[in-house]
């Protein structure tokens, strides 16, 4: 097991419902092509994104599978 420590900061968390990898790839594209460029308040900071997978409930191929993408952000100045 490897433990990573992330610097303290703000994260934009995007929930994702749907089978993996299609739903997560689609969400990732929307984040970086729509949400980040169009967001007047936040910008990307840091160099690590987090993908979260629900390892307890359901299978990754289920239509209601739950996952998420976390991206580090900071307020625009």
Annotation keywords:
77 residues; alpha+beta
What does this structure look like?
With 77 residues, the protein is α+β, with helices and mostly antiparallel strands. The protein has one domain (10-75). Helix content is 22%, strand content 32%. The protein contains 1 helix and 4 strands, in the order βαβββ. The chain has one helix at residues 22-38; strands at residues 10-17, 42-44, 50-53, 66-75. Strands 1, 2, 3 and 4 form a 4-stranded antiparallel β-sheet that branches.
Spell out the blueprint of helices and strands:
Blueprint: E1 10-17, H1 22-38, E2 42-44, E3 50-53, E4 66-75
Antiparallel strand pairs: 1-4, 2-4, 3-4
**What is the string of helix and strand elements?**
EHEEE
Percent of residues in helices comes to 10-25%
Report low-confidence residues grouped into runs of 5 or more: none
How far from one another are the termini? 38 Å
Which strand-content bin applies to the residues? 25-35%
Q: Major sheet, described briefly? A: 4 strands, antiparallel
Shape: flat
Mean pLDDT across residues: 93
Q: Count the helices. How many?
A: 1
Spatial extent as radius of gyration: 14 Å
Provide the domain count: 1
Structural class: alpha+beta
**Secondary structure tally: strands:** 4
Brief summary:
The protein is of the alpha+beta class and 77 residues long.
